[in-house]
Design a protein that fits this description.
This protein is of the alpha/beta class. The chain contains 14 helices and 15 strands. 38% of the residues are buried.
Length: 372
């Protein structure tokens, strides 16, 4: 799918990078007026790795990079902004729209100050594109995950480009670009690690809720595009989820029990299944395209970056990928016993009651007839 533009709304296009675990989403919006006059905007144009595919896509869509007018940056991270200098070199008419806080850092790429238009300089968040008659709105996402983070709402398509808010690691299986329930695990994982507090998320959710009309689609810079009923559902879940400092301040005692339980299980695993233990440690300490969830020194878990419940689910998933399928049942028993020995509730997948054995039930009924 890398290099293929996909239209997700009225003249609103997505270009995804090719990584499997943690890809980048670049968005292009064409504002086309009734007389055919147009204005072209790119949102979070990615990195030099994306430049060849982006150049081709823009040539097909708008006749080339030179026809870009606006580069919107949600924040300053290099996966978002490091293409700006190269784009400006080929698009002499383009301006960078971003917050002052973001500009303070991205100007280090050597971008001329006369190419910068601070969002704070506009008198209103809601702006009319004079050339075409369309409306856009800048929506602050303070501290999600950067003080100067900004989102952009396109009223024509009712798509909210949200930057890192609602972003996620890839946990949905299969092709496509739209979120399903499977996407929530990746969104939750990303926000627990990178968002500072529940309050920051709640304020951003409140700002989204004040948009009129409400967005039908949320298009983040990482992960799947969220649309339909999942927009409200995922926003509701995010607003009630502990992240960042919340997880550190409220559950330290719970985490200590978790560390003891996990390390006890790892010690047992090393003695009984050394090959599985070695593969599990390797899996848990390999960052891949995103990050490591567990801090492991030697063979011991010293820290987790997630809520205990989510960390356990991640640990068990890594456990299953490290062992042959015929060992899963036995390892599950050892894992559950180790957790419960230290007062830690197993992940939901391992807490479900075993299916009813109908053969055993029938035998008990027959015995009842014999001895009743």
């Amino acid at each position: 799918m890398h290099g293929e533009l996909q239209e997700i709304g009225e003249e609103f296009y997505l270009l995804r990078s090719e990584e499997e675990d943690f890809h980048r989403n670049i968005y292009i919006k064409r504002f086309v007026g009734p007389d055919g006059d147009s204005l072209n905007m790119i949102m979070d144009p990615g990195t030099p790795l994306d430049y060849p595919a982006l150049s081709k896509a823009l040539k097909d869509l708008i006749g080339g990079i030179r026809n870009l007018h606006i580069i919107f940056l949600s924040h300053q991270d290099p996966d978002v902004s490091s293409n700006v200098g190269a784009i400006l070199a080929s698009a002499p008419r383009a301006l960078v729209f971003t917050s002052i806080d973001t500009w303070r850092l991205v100007k280090m790429y050597g971008i001329p100050e006369n190419k910068f238009k601070p969002i704070e300089s506009f008198k209103r968040e809601l702006l009319k594109v004079k050339r075409t008659g369309h409306w856009i709105q800048f929506v602050p996402a303070r501290y999600c995950h950067f003080r100067g983070a900004m989102m952009l709402y396109d009223h024509e398509s009712r798509i909210l480009f949200s930057g890192d808010f609602m972003a996620g690691v890839n946990t949905r299986k299969g092709p496509g670009i739209y979120a399903t329930e499977e996407s929530w695990e990746g969104i939750s994982l990303f926000h627990q690690i990178y968002m500072p507090s529940k309050k920051a998320i709640q304020r951003t959710v409140d700002r989204i809720g004040m948009l009129n009309p409400l967005p039908q689609v949320i298009a983040p810079q990482h992960g799947d595009v969220v649309k339909g009923e999942l927009v409200d559902e995922f926003l509701h879940r995010l607003s009630s989820m502990d992240v960042g400092l919340d997880t550190e301040e409220s559950i330290e005692a719970e985490k200590e029990n978790l560390y003891v339980a996990l390390n006890s299980f790892l010690d047992m695993l090393k003695l009984t299944y050394p090959a599985v233990h070695s593969k599990l440690i390797s899996t848990l300490t390999t960052a891949g395209e995103f990050t490591t969830v567990f801090k492991i020194v030697g063979d011991n878990v010293l820290e987790v970056k997630l809520l205990p419940k989510t960390a356990l689910e991640h640990f068990w998933k890594a456990m299953k990928s490290s062992a042959e399928a015929d060992l899963h049942e036995e390892l599950a028993g050892l894992f559950v016993n180790s957790l419960r020995s230290f007062g830690v509730e197993p992940p939901p997948e391992l807490s479900r009651p075993a299916p009813e054995d109908k053969t055993l039930t029938t035998e008990m009924v027959n015995l009842d007839k014999i001895f009743g």
